[in-house]
Amino acid sequence: xxxxxxxxxxxxxxxxxxxxxxxxxxxxxxxxxxxxxxxxxxxxxxxxxxxxxxxxxxxxxxxxxxxxxxxxxxxxxxxxxxxxxxxxxxxxxxxxxxxxxxxxxxxxxxxxxxxxxxxxxxxxxxxxxxxxxxxxxxxxxxxxxxxxxxxxxxxxxxxxxxxxxxxxxxxxxxxxxxxxxxxxxxxxxxxxxxxxxxxxxxxxxxxxxxxxxxxxxxxxxxxxxxxxxxxxxxxxxxxxxxxxxxx
Length: 247
Known about the structure:
With 247 residues, the chain is an alpha/beta fold.
């Protein structure tokens, strides 16, 4: 990888967030360096989709800033790849400012669509908000172990156990299951799940929650709970033990 890296010096020994910037314009790169360093975050800057894929393969990021027009790919193709593997927020930066471009970007999972030239102060403020929100949803340490229908879920270790069988969930899957378990028996809207899981409001066309639901269903297939789709309302977690008793 030929990109540039910067490590912040967070206060009080806390671990700083890490931002990936994908943009081939050297002027924009310098602006993003100043903005992200000012937000107290670490960052990695790359100039192509290939370089981004290399660093994404072995590094966790708390936020991605993504240019639409990369020298080797459309940024939207890279966006789809990022969102298929991670729940981190993505801000698209682009000179393509038509409404259909913005709707397409948001529909594919981008959190924000910012047109160039952007206001550095406004972008800095939004970056800080997203990093804070993602940090809040990413840390379930204040929650205890949940037991339901012979199943044990520990959000801190991301471990789900039942009858000697266990799985370790991905961070986004953990937050999604946690939200459903904390509200067991109650319908959770996509907006509620998006807020808890991704730290952002849900918008029509945003498929992030639905993709995570399908992924989580596959992961918990062997466990005694079921995620039920409530048409035009949201999702509901139901213990299968209760379902059997009702029949």
